[in-house]
Amino acid sequence: MLTVNQRNYRAPRQPTVVVCVDGCEPDYLALAVAGGHMPWLKRVLVEGTGLIADCVVPSFTNPNNLSIVTGAPPSVHGICGNFIYDAATGTEVMMNDPKWLRAPSLLAALADAGHSVAVVTAKDKLRRLLGHGMRGICFSSEKADQATQAEHGITGVVDLVRMPVPDVYSAELSEFVFAAGVQLMRTRKPDVMYLSTTDYVQHKHAPGTPGANAFCAMMDRYLGELDAQGCVVVLTADHGMNSKVGLDGRPDVIYLQDWFDRAIGPGKARVILPITDPYVVHHGALGSYATVYLPPELAAGPITSQLLALRGMEVVLDREAAARRFELPPDRIGDLVCVSERFTVLGTSRERHDLSGLDAPLRSHGGISEQRVPLIVNRTLPGLDPNRRLRNFDAFDLALNHAQ
User: Is the pTM of this model over 0.90?
Assistant: First the structure.
C-alpha cells in the first residue's frame, strides 16, 4: 500500500494504463459510439464502467493533468494554470517548471516503490511536470526524436513507434502518444503507464463531425490493443470543450483588460489568462477563466457587482471564495477570479489576441461549463460508492483500488 498526498493506493497486479484525452467533452465519445466509430468503447460501456466526473476549474491542461497524477486538487499540488503572474518577481510566466509543484506525484512514488512506470505526453510543456522526481520512461511526441536515456529513460523512440515526429498542430501528435503506449506495453511492459494527448482536434472539430469521429476511431483502435494485452485501462479527460461563438459565428469575447482600463484607469489592474501557452493558434489564448490583480486601494466588492452584470459572465469571486470553491492555492490566483458562461470567452485587450490562425469557429474551455468529463474503466468497480462525487483525479484510485 502506498500513501501519496493523503490517499492510499494498492500496488498494481495487472498492467495499468491511465489515459487523459485532452479536451474530451463526453459528447465526443457518445456520438462516436452511436455512429459505430468506437466498437471497443461500446463493448466497455456494457461490460465495464462508464461514468461522468468533474475536472478541476480552471478547466485547463496543466492543472488537471497534475491533479490526475497527484490524486489531488491544485490547492495541494500548486499548479493552477498553464500561465501565471509571479507576484514575487512581477513577471508573467509559464507554469511548466517543476519549481511550481508543491506535492509529489503518484507516478514518482510508484517508481520509488520498485514499479516500472512510463509516461508519454503530446506536448513537451507537460513532460517535466509529469516526470518530476520519477525514475522511468517519460517523453513527449513533440520531441520524441530528442529522447535520451539520461533524461527520458529511453532512446530510439521514433524507430520504436514507427511514426515520424508529428507537427504540433495535428491529430497525429496524439496518435503518436497512443502508438507509443502500445509499443511500450509490448516491448517494455511497464507496470503503470500514463498517456496524455493534445486537444488540437477538439478545438477544431465539434462532437459528431467527421474529424472528431476519425480521431475517436483512431483512439478506439489503440485502446483496444492495450486492452487485448491485458491492461486495466482508465480513460478520462483534463477538461471538456465548447463552442465559444455568438449567433454570427464570431468569437464571443469579454475583453477584461479593456474593461478595467475604462473602468478604473489604464494599467491599474492586471488581467491574467491562465490558458496561455506556446500553442495558441487554435484558441488565440481565449478561454472561459481569468484572474485579475487589482490595485491595493481598490475594493473588490463594487467591481465584482459590475463584472457580474456583464453579458456572458457566469461567476466572479474574490481570492478567498475562489480558492474555497475551486480548491485553488490562494497565493497564485489574483484578487478576483472571473468565469464566463458556456458560449463566452475572456480576453485581455482586443489588440493582444491574434485570431488570424482560426480556420474554424472558436472552440475553447476553462470554465465551469467544461467541467464534466468522462471517466471510463474497462473493468467493473466492485465496492465503489454510487453516491460519491467523482473527479478526474480519481482515475488512479479507480484503476488501482477498484479495478484490479
Answer: yes
Homologous superfamily (CATH) for 2-241+366-402: Alkaline Phosphatase, subunit A (3.40.720.10)
* Per-residue pLDDT at 360: 83
Share of the chain above pLDDT 90, in %: 88
Rounded Cα distance, 370 and 354, in Å: 23
pLDDT tens digits for 26-70?
A: 999 999 999 999 999 999 999 999 999 999 999 999 999 999 999
Contacts of 99 (CB under 8 A, 6+ apart): none
- Cα–Cα distances in Å, from 269 out to 190, 328, 331? 49, 21, 17
- For residue range 167-223, what is the model confidence (pLDDT) as tens digits? 999 999 999 999 999 999 999 999 999 999 999 999 999 999 999 999 999 999 999
- The grid coordinates listed for 65 are 493533468
Q: pLDDT-based confidence at 20, cuts 50/70/90?
A: very high
The answer to whether 5 touches 76, Cβ cutoff 8 Å, is yes
Q: Which residues contact 342 (CB under 8 A, 6 or more apart)?
A: 242, 288, 367, 369
Cα–Cα distance measured from residue 289 to residue 371, given in angstroms and rounded to the nearest whole number: 12
Cite the DSSP H helix spans in 132-230. Answer: 149-152, 157-161, 172-187, 200-204, 210-228
Shortest CA distance to 138 belongs to which of 148, 222, 167, 233? 148
Which one-letter DSSP state was computed for residue 142?
T
402 closest CA partner among 248, 371, 196, 390: 390
H-helix or E-strand containing 43?
helix 39-47
Domain locations in the chain as residue ranges = 2-241+366-402, 253-364
Give which of 403, 366, 371, 363 is closest to 389, Cα–Cα: 371
Place of cell 491574434: 354
Q: Please check whether the domain covering 253-364 is classified as CATH 2.40.110.10.
A: no
Q: Rounded to the nearest 5°, which phi and psi values hold at 271?
A: -100, 130
How many H helices and E strands in the chain? 15, 19
